[in-house]
Amino acid sequence: MKALLGVVAMAALAVNLVTSCSSSPTGRQTVKLFPSTELAALGAASFNDLKARQQLSDNSADIRYLQCVSQALIGALPEPYRSASWDVQLFASDEVNAFALPGEKIGVYSGLLEVAENQHQLAAVIGHEIGHVIAEHANERMTAQVGAGLALQLGGAIAYSEMDDNSAALAMMALGLGVQIGGVLPFSRIHESESDQLGVDYMVAAGFDPGAAADLWRNMAALGKASGPQWLSTHPASSTRIKALENYAAQLQPLYQQGRTQGKQPDCKRS
Ligand SMILES: [Zn+2]
After folding, report:
1. C or N terminus of the chain, fewer CB within 10 Å?
2. CA of residue 133 to ligand 1 center, whole Å
3. Which pLDDT tens digit goes with each residue over 213-267?
4. Ligand 1 mean position to 252 CA, how many Å?
5. What's the whole-model pTM score?
6. What is the phi-psi region of residue 263: left when phi exceeds 0, alpha when psi lies from -120 to 50, beta otherwise?
């Protein structure tokens, strides 16, 4: 019974936390249980570990190109993100992949530079990854996993014990929480489309052509048929996704053109 009370106390904690939810940059209601500073520290440690274990590119032209695009995007971000200390690294690998970690860490594999045909397409990748970081998707994903674990635990408690009515009600609320935020797959799709949208926003703010995002995904899809790049395992280049990117980019074209006349014209070249 003592263990059961412990579980119920955890449920109460989760229920308290769920009432203090927040909004993502696109206005979506989110539940994040972990302090951002803790996740940033975790992200920094993981990034250091990766940098120690995987070879970084020594191609200075490619590094300059990646930093040029990244700095243009970061320089156009809203505060406090513009002033944050972003760390964007180029890993020497044929993998067509990129990733983001909490604490403003972004890794790009040099293979990706072969698929992103110009600065605008590369900006689509970096902008997308920046979107994951700013929307704190890692925090939400971890919260969902904790919620699902808690729901399972409580499911067992209900099946094997005689709870009083109040405890059972509390447990059911927590189970409802688990059902609501559990399930990694549909959640990932939400994160992916949110990052797509944020990425295009950041591209336009920096003066990159938003139409290049759909071009990049078409390149990915074409390549995927032949060799199946790693990026596609977490970023399916579905026709739905490409269509959504095209529609959103079309909406932002006037803003992009306006920015260009105001001098937002990044000029990053891979040479
Ligand atoms: Zn993504």
Report:
1. C
2. 10
3. 999 999 988 886 555 556 665 666 678 889 999 999 999 999 999 999 999 999 9
4. 21
5. 0.79
6. left
